[in-house]
Amino acid sequence: MNDADLTIWGSGSWGTALAAHLAENGRTVCLWGRAEAQIERMRTTGRNEAYLPGTVLPDGVHLTANVEEAATASSMWALAVPSHAVEDMAQTLRPYLAHVACAVSLAKGIDADTGRTMTQVMEQVWQPNDPPCVALSGPSHAEEVALSAPTTVVAAHPDKQWAEAVRDVFMTDRFRVYTNTDRLGVELAGAAKNVLALAAGICDGVGYGDNAKAALITRGLAELRRLGHALGAVPETFAGLAGIGDLVVTCVSGHSRNRHLGEQLGRGHTLDEALDAMHMVAEGVYTTKAIHRLAQEHNVDMPITAAVNAILHEDADPHRLMERLMARAPKPEVRPASS
Ligand SMILES: NC(=O)C1=CN([C@@H]2O[C@H](COP(=O)(O)OP(=O)(O)OC[C@H]3O[C@@H](n4cnc5c(N)ncnc54)[C@H](O)[C@@H]3O)[C@@H](O)[C@H]2O)C=CC1
Ligand SMILES: O=C(CO)COP(=O)(O)O
């Protein structure tokens, strides 16, 4: 096969949901997974029971575990592996870069060691070939996209023609794609909302209630805007789909793995226990440290992120941290983004 509209790298819940939805809407999609046995099971059953139970894969989804076959299947690649696997995946794809006209980052995370966004990671590995790397993000739980429930996202690249090229491949009657030239803001927002979703889950697990959750979402957005300002993102991006949109859905949804993991921590389970009970990725666990470090390096006040970091990595007690957050010095609600 070499005439697919799109190759999706990663056959977890997000890669599978997008492949199924797009194929249902007339696209031909090559879906690559690293485990031959899992791909074979998907071929036989027509489903991905491990990551997206119940969804039937339409005929337009071509399944493969062969890298060369997937790389040459189309000229648009979308990386749907977790953020900690993006650098390795990009390395694996280097020999095939002549085939790609445009790449899409679907992962929502920040590189834990370097603080780079996922498109920065891809661009660094792929230079000097430099295929344009577009970020696609927004409130989009795989389980709902697979059911073709109405969903809106944003495709972001500094050159709007590449954001539009991605929009044109991904947009359907039920999957609406906006464009934005602030790729950095879109990626920061997509990553940081996972940290705040952990906080929302902890809040649920402890039983603090809806007022506290609304406060976490609102003040979480404020600290995300401050980080974005320090790093050069556009403030309006955080009021958009990748910002408040994804923050709301991830903090309240029963589908969110990050919120769920936070809830387990709030109920008193250790991080290891909570992770052992999940087979899907909860990006916030890796991203919290990276965002906390970025905040320190750029002197940005991010008290909620700092509290989540302390719960995850310093075994801090959520009650004590909540008391500390509430007892901080009084402040005006609206401050200049730089303070
Ligand atoms: N599930 C969702 O609703 C959405 C997820 N995302 C993002 O998409 C990314 C992927 O998430 P999911 O598909 O949900 O995760 P998942 O946990 O459901 O699946 C991850 C997939 O990546 C594969 N994988 C793991 N390490 C790999 C490696 N080193 N090389 C190749 N493949 C590897 C796994 O085998 C699995 O197929 C994450 O960054 C997530 O934040 C974005 C939007 C929605
Ligand atoms: O990004 C998502 C929804 O937009 C998925 O969130 P979780 O990874 O927390 O399930």
TrEMBL record:
Q: Which reaction does it catalyse?
A: sn-glycerol 3-phosphate + NAD(+) = dihydroxyacetone phosphate + NADH + H(+); sn-glycerol 3-phosphate + NADP(+) = dihydroxyacetone phosphate + NADPH + H(+)
Which residue ranges traverse the bilayer?
none
Listed under GO biological process in this entry are: carbohydrate metabolic process; glycerol-3-phosphate biosynthetic process; glycerol-3-phosphate catabolic process; glycerophospholipid metabolic process; phospholipid biosynthetic process
Q: Which residues bind sn-glycerol 3-phosphate?
A: 108, 138, 140, 193, 246, 256-258
Q: Which residues form the Glycerol-3-phosphate dehydrogenase NAD-dependent N-terminal domain?
A: 7-162
Name the enzyme's class.
Answer: oxidoreductase
Q: What is this protein called?
A: Glycerol-3-phosphate dehydrogenase [NAD(P)+]
Q: Which PROSITE patterns does UniProt cross-reference here?
A: NAD_G3PDH
- Classification via InterPro entries: 6-PGluconate_DH-like_C_sf, 6PGD_dom2, G3P_DH_NAD-dep, G3P_DH_NAD-dep_C, G3P_DH_NAD-dep_N, NAD(P)-bd_dom_sf
Q: Which residues form the Glycerol-3-phosphate dehydrogenase NAD-dependent C-terminal domain?
A: 182-322
Q: According to its UniProt entry, what is the function of this protein?
A: Catalyzes the reduction of the glycolytic intermediate dihydroxyacetone phosphate (DHAP) to sn-glycerol 3-phosphate (G3P), the key precursor for phospholipid synthesis.
Q: In which pathway does it act?
A: Membrane lipid metabolism; glycerophospholipid metabolism
According to its UniProt record, where is this protein located?
Cytoplasm
In this chain, NADPH is annotated as bound at 13-14, 34, 51, 108, 142, 257, 281, 283
One matching Pfam family is NAD_Gly3P_dh_N
Q: Which UniProt keywords apply?
A: Cytoplasm, Lipid biosynthesis, Lipid metabolism, NAD, NADP, Nucleotide-binding, Oxidoreductase, Phospholipid biosynthesis, Phospholipid metabolism
Q: What are the EC numbers?
A: 1.1.1.94
Q: What is its main location?
A: cytoplasm
